[in-house]
């Protein structure tokens, strides 16, 4: 997956949902940290390409910050169905996430370098700096922040437009109610990934649209 165009990810913990997701999604985000199944569940052929995420606690996930978390990601990228892997920027700058990137490179798997802020939307300079750092360490620079008001959403959209114009591949979204619309609008400004659960009750982040709604809104806007 090269993310040269927008990719709508069905975000899921259950790979048997893929058949249903196929109707609306371009790919699947498998949330290893939230799933009952382990890496072995990926050892099958699936109808959509998989982005694997093993989100650490503190960035919206359930995985403890152990070497086992990264071992699982390293094993996952060896599965032929896995075409992209998510690793947090903080794991690359303060942790030992580099080996996940090395393993991904070896298996021709795209690296999404992510940052999450569940409290607020940092200022414009900080957003630009996070996206620039992430872009330098991976293939897609991803930023999920919390918008408290429309101005926050606008800041994120503006940063998305600027970084895309400068040739970077980014994925952005504002979590929470005030930023909800940004999930379907950000792709118009260059964001290359949207995340949506098959149904609202299985949301993996605040303010997500369900998959069908996301697809419909996106198609009607673009
Ligand atoms: O990091 C992201 C983005 C996300 O947090 C969102 O806001 O849609 C959803 C997560 O599943 C994914 O790993």
TrEMBL record:
Pathway: Metabolic intermediate biosynthesis; chorismate biosynthesis; chorismate from D-erythrose 4-phosphate and phosphoenolpyruvate: step 3/7. InterPro entries: Aldolase_TIM, DHquinase_I, Type-I_3-dehydroquinase. The active site is at 116 (proton donor/acceptor), 142 (schiff-base intermediate with substrate). 3-dehydroquinate binds at residues 29-31, 55, 183, 204, 208. One of its GO terms (biological process) is aromatic amino acid family biosynthetic process. Keywords: Amino-acid biosynthesis, Aromatic amino acid biosynthesis, Lyase, Schiff base. Its EC number is 4.2.1.10. It catalyses: 3-dehydroquinate = 3-dehydroshikimate + H2O. One of its GO terms (molecular function) is 3-dehydroquinate dehydratase activity. Belongs to the type-I 3-dehydroquinase family. Involved in the third step of the chorismate pathway, which leads to the biosynthesis of aromatic amino acids. Catalyzes the cis-dehydration of 3-dehydroquinate (DHQ) and introduces the first double bond of the aromatic ring to yield 3-dehydroshikimate. Homodimer. This is 3-dehydroquinate dehydratase. It comes from Halovenus rubra.
